[in-house]
Amino acid sequence: MQLLISPSLRHVTVLPTKGFKEFVKVKVGSRRISYLMVFYSLLLFTFLLRFVFMLTAEDTIDGERKCSTLGCLGRKIGPRILGTQLESTVPEVIYQVLEEPTDQIEIEEGPETPQSLEEFMEEMKDTRPDAETFAVKLKAMVTLLEQRTRTAKIQEYLYRHVASSGIPKQLHCLDLKLAHEHSINANARLQLPSPELVPALVDNSYFHFVLASDNILAASVVASSLVQNSFRPEKVVLHIITDSKTFSPMQAWFSLHSLTPAIIEVKALHHFDWLTKGKVPVLEAMEKDQKARSQFRGGSSAIVVNTTEKPHIIAAKLQALSPKYNSLMNHIRIYLPELFPSLDKVVFLDDDIVIQTDLSSLWDIDMNGKVNGAVETCRGEDKFVMAKRFKSYLNFSHPLISNNFDPNECAWAYGMNIFDLEAWRETNISEAYHYWLEQNLKSDLSLWQLGTLPPGLIAFHGHVHPIDPFWHMLGLGYQDNTSIPDAKSAGVIHFNGRAKPWLDIAFPQLRSLWTKYVNFSDKFIRTCHIRAT
Predict the structure, then answer these.
(1) Distance between CA 150 and CA 301 in Å, rounded?
(2) Cβ-Cβ contacts under 8 Å for 345 (sequence gap 6 or more)
(3) Angle at the Cα of 425 (from 208 to 269), degrees rounded to 5?
(4) Closest CA to 391 of 463, 448, 442, 437
(5) Using alpha carbons only, what angle is made at residue 70 by residues 66 and 74, rounded to the nearest 5 degrees?
(6) Is the pLDDT of residue 20 over 60?
(7) Strands 416-420 and 263-268
């Protein structure tokens, strides 16, 4: 028998010879070893050799071979068999190189930096460098790719900011077409609602919904989805509040697209007599806020050139520049008791939602004396959207915040809220809202950075009644991994985030949940080239 072992110990070959049968028949004591036993013994021997090779045949980056003695072999195999830990075999110089401060200029300008992992592996195989050179090349490649990823991410945030802040030409076209129709067509200037239905506007036996929007297409989807899914549409009253420039086209749309038997009211802010600068502190605060943000932020160009801040911080600052955060339409909900002095309870709706169920059951919820019925956003399987606490919105490094609030208190969402106006009128919620807006301005916007939710969290603190998450599913404008079955089964879905369903940057698989309430055969929709995809 010949036993051939390759130099690398990777292969062992057994060749039978002329005396092999005699060898197999050799006596061991009084017993004979069978041919089969010898064959299996050889296989076991082969396996052990390969096992030893895999444990010991390690080459360092410098090409030196480990374990040339039995003592070294024992030290290598022993701990692995016994289950004990080995000390790191990574050369210390690699840690030293990786921990050194990165020279940004050298990495950006270095022509020798590998551009991909494939290039890096090819270079390492060809040059067989020492450990220090290996670490330097690896660090340069990873840093370069990291910089490119950061730049691409910031560019994505900037493009999304531009896309979400501007008015799409299709929506601008719709405004113009409807404004023109309002001027030439008496049927587009109907009083909404008709005179005989006006008493219903203050009748608490109806279900009153409030929508504040300057987006006609978005408002039409909210209204259509509300009425189409209502069990008793004849008891639905939708109060639409818009600004002066959008009033005429908004009135034209709902005059020409009746949602009977539901009752639709369209009013502009200037139709409310009490809404004057002297009586509404938030108007003055908004003017100061706009000036402060202009000086403090420096515009989108100044934000994106920052090389030290993380991309998600830059995204938050870009979002703070969104026009909606300095729009009275976004603050109007804090004045609901003044806007509707005769009503006891209303449901306030954002214009980026879709209603998929009958909402009359919301009036049966016992609010336990609380003012704001809202879905909490600190509990749920979606850790991106449903993991929000006060510390997610407020700056707890500022003593005004840290001394008054708990960072781990559960946050809640705007978008679909039940407001008990009777209970509200017994509180100082509106005054607290104005006070904290002023404090944020005095602190150079350091209490929070954007939006009306942070001051809302403060003003309604202690006045919130949690409602079932079924009534309000969030995040459809933030991420495309939202579960379609979950979205379809929710009572209300909310496209909060930049990817609004009427924009080209909307997530295609989610957009269809919104477009199903758009009549694409309508002449105004067709003329302005508003399409489902």
Answers:
(1) 16
(2) 204, 208, 363, 418, 419, 420, 421, 422
(3) 55
(4) 448
(5) 85
(6) no
(7) unpaired
pTM of the full predicted structure?
A: 0.73
- The token duo for 327 is 């729009």
pLDDT in tens, 191-230: 999 999 999 999 999 999 999 999 999 999 999 999 999 9
Mean pLDDT of 172-184: 96
Q: Which helix (H) or strand (E) holds 210?
A: strand 207-212
- Burial class for 6, CB neighbours closer than 10 Å (0-12, 13-18, 19+): exposed
Backbone angles phi, psi at 311, to 5 degrees: -55, -40
Separation of alpha carbons 73 and 48, rounded Å: 13
Q: What angle, 0 to 180 degrees and rounded to 10, lies between the N-to-C axes of helices 131-165 and 92-99?
A: 30
Q: Which are the contacts of 53, defined by CB distance < 8 A and separation ≥ 6?
A: 8, 9, 10
> What gap in Å lies between CA 161 and CA 319, rounded to an integer?
7
Cβ atoms of residues 272 and 332 within 8 Å: no
Model confidence at 19: pLDDT above 50: no
Q: Are 250 and 242 in contact (CB under 8 A)?
A: yes
CA-based end-to-end distance of the chain: 76
Distances (CA, A) of 57 to 66, 92, 183, 343, 373: 7, 21, 87, 82, 67
Conformation bin of residue 444: beta by default, left when phi > 0, alpha when psi is -120 to 50 = left
CA distance linking residue 387 with residue 458, whole number of Å: 18
CA 125 vs CA 7, 128, 168, 260, 274: distances in Å: 22, 6, 53, 76, 78
Rg value, the chain, Cα: 35
* Alpha-carbon span 430 to 85, nearest angstrom: 63
Query: Residues 360, 354: contact at Cβ < 8 Å?
Result: no
**CA pair distance 129, 124, nearest whole angstrom:** 7
Check whether 422 has a pLDDT greater than 80. yes
Closest by Cα among 506, 503, 532 to 167 = 503
Contact 227, 156 (CB under 8 A): no
**DSSP symbol at 167:** P
Which residues are 3's β-sheet partners?
14
Write the CB contacts of 427 (distance below 8 Å, at least 6 apart in sequence): 371, 463
Distances (CA, A) of 513 to 38, 217, 220, 259, 358: 72, 15, 14, 20, 16
Q: What is the pLDDT averaged over residues 360-366?
A: 97
State the pLDDT confidence band at 512, using cuts at 50, 70 and 90: very high
Instruction: Give backbone dihedrals phi and psi of 209, rounded to 5 degrees, phi first.
Output: -120, 145
Structure tokens at 110: 């270095």
Q: pLDDT confidence of 441, banded at 50, 70, 90?
A: confident
d(CA 266, CA 211): 10
Q: How far apart are CA 290 and CA 277, in angstroms?
A: 16
